[in-house]
Structure prediction request, 644 residues.
Amino acid sequence: MFPEASELPTLPAAATANLPMAVPRSLTPDTQELNATQERIITARFQLLQMIENRAADKTVMQAARDIIDAIDNGADERLVSIAATANDRQGKERGLSLPTLMRWWTIYQKTDKKQNSLAPVKGDRVPRRVLVAWLRDYVPGSAGHAVLPACIPAWAPYFLDEYRRPQKPSLQQSLIRISRDMPADIERPSYDQVRRVMKKVPEIYREKGRRTGAEYKSLLGYMERDASMFAPMSICQIDGHSFKAYVAHPVTGAHFHPEVCAVICLTTKLLAGWSAGIAESHQTVGDAYRHACTVNSKKLWGGVPSILEADRGAGNMARVNTDEYIGLFARIGTTFIPPERGGNPQSHGAIERSNQSIWIRAAKNLLTYTGKDMDRGARRQVYDRLERDLKAVQKAEKLGVVAKTSELLMSWAEFLAFLEQTALEYNNSPHKSLPKIVVPPPHAPEGRATRRHMTPFECWADYVSRGFEPVHPDDALLTKLFAPHVPVTVRREKFTLNGNTYHSLDLAEYHNQQVVVAYDIHTPDTVSVFDHDENFICEAKWQGNRVHARPVSSVERAQLQRHDRRLKNKAKQIDLINAETDRKNVEIKALHKEIDQETADYEVQEERKRQYMLATPKYFEDEHEVYDTLYHSYKHNERLVPE
Prediction:
């Protein structure tokens, strides 16, 4: 009697739950999976099978196959021998084709409806690259326990990928050790060579997914090139700040530091329309670069108000004084500001990011104080040590803040601004590969021989102007008024506070407890202009008093004070950390003596007297052992350490 179904033993679920599901492999591989060697072998085998199909009517398949094998063994037909050698795909001298092998090919050929790809040789446990890539495209990281795998992909592959594709970037060996320890026991452990062979077939975009994230991973992917040639100049512009990769003199102290450079690029003409430099990234540097881009006069014939301005989500770009929909600088001038939806995505404004390389980093390499990552470390260290020595000499002479620069290696701030102006002109007058080609002399030799080259940004701008383009720009007086930062404030008893300064006007009596808009110049804080929400002028409010300072503090000075406070706090944190390294807990020191009672004290006095008496009495020793014992007990009584 056979046991009932309910009495049969059941396998534990854990024995198969961790095994990925395998998809049976097709007997006919796709043509795209085949390499050139396999295609040659398929062609040779197909030619032999065609000879069997074209046999005489009175011969069977077996008889025709034997005739082919006999002809190959005879060697009379060299072409047939060459075809057989290619079809057999064997190495070494003995490469003859056998009858069973030829019949096996015939059986597979007939079983697959005479598809030639079914004759492809199978190289052991080979993992086709196309199958591997198709599986990787749909594989969800972290789902190794229930992944569906093609039959040719080993079961350890998803576990290895989950371990290998981590931001810590472990090596193949480290990942192999981890999965060998943590992978389910019912999956066979691979060798290092097996892992290496499979991972060699994984494309980089799938191999680095998870090891790289954000912009670093996107640098491996394809991208769409934006073509702005159909738009008028200044229709779409990009703005970005860049930490200049060279030391220059600080405008106040003269010491070496890295300034912040901000630029505005027109995507249509690739023109550097405006730029500015500051001590650090701030809304003032961004606003000044934007103002410079909008300025068009007899000294600066290029530029205008951008229709659309794109930027990253930096603090200076996203400052409310620039981006607010009502009082923001961009909105008041008439520019639509479009930041990226999320940070860490420089590919969204690649033109301005690339210009940092071709403009500012290229310019910084002309200076001795260049500090880019490709600068020789030894030379960079020597320059830094020289700057530090010169700075200490200036500090010792008490001339810090008096001299324009603390070292001869540095550019003064005025020299640096002139250097940036020259750099911008050289860029705008250099051929740009994104612009159309023309046949003209080189820009640096206008009288030279005409050659076919790309336009310069200046030539592209001039071409648009010659076709009737006129940039939109306000006059200088209006520009000064428009670029004054606007801030909403609340009036209290004819007064309001702005940037730590208190301003007063009798005309504000009617606006008690109401909000107004104040326009101010960042460099002259004595007087500010007050408007209502309809931009109607109310009055000029004057500085009346300040609880903190004895004079009005400009916006620039206030920013310098805030930067000073931040730097002091950072240094204070560093000092606290240094002091924490040397802090010691109070160590409890035990007393070197202890209190004893009177009875013990009397006993010790008596013993001491006996010892003194024995020492005073002459003693004759019989041998050296007795001498040693006497000295040992004497030292022991005095509580000296005697080695055992």
